[in-house]
Q: What sequence folds into this?
């Protein structure tokens, strides 16, 4: 969404620094989460009633294409999500996990739970709940 308008020619950091690409989106490097941390983050999101989105270097997965904020994110990132109910086959490639809900208390308690349980393994920050390296 910014590459052409800004005429970017240098590498670009995406997904909260989880992926670095050339302007043509060729992946230079990616920093996946540890599989166990990604799995635990997803479990905590389910516990707190958050819809989870999982990003890899090349794809964005959601469980429900009609879920909260999917349309907005599609517009923002300028590429569609892929629908996937079970993320377990992609845990080794997860560079970012987002917990989504319109329930602000659920997001807040989910953030705190992830920060406590995954301290020192990942960064868990409130925006939506973003899990990244």
A:
């Amino acid at each position: 969404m910014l590459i052409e308008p800004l005429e970017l020619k240098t590498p670009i950091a995406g997904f909260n620094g989880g992926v670095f690409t050339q302007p043509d989106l060729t992946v230079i490097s990616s920093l996946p989460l540890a599989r166990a941390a990604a799995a635990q983050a997803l479990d905590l999101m389910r516990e707190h009633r958050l819809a989870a989105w999982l990003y890899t270097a090349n794809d964005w997965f959601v469980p429900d294409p009609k879920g909260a904020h999917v349309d907005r994110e599609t517009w923002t990132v300028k590429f569609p999500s892929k629908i996937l109910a079970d993320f377990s086959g992609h845990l080794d490639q997860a560079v970012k996990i987002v917990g989504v809900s319109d329930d602000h208390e659920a997001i807040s308690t989910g953030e705190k739970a992830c920060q406590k349980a995954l301290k020192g393994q990942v960064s868990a920050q409130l925006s939506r709940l973003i899990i990244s390296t």
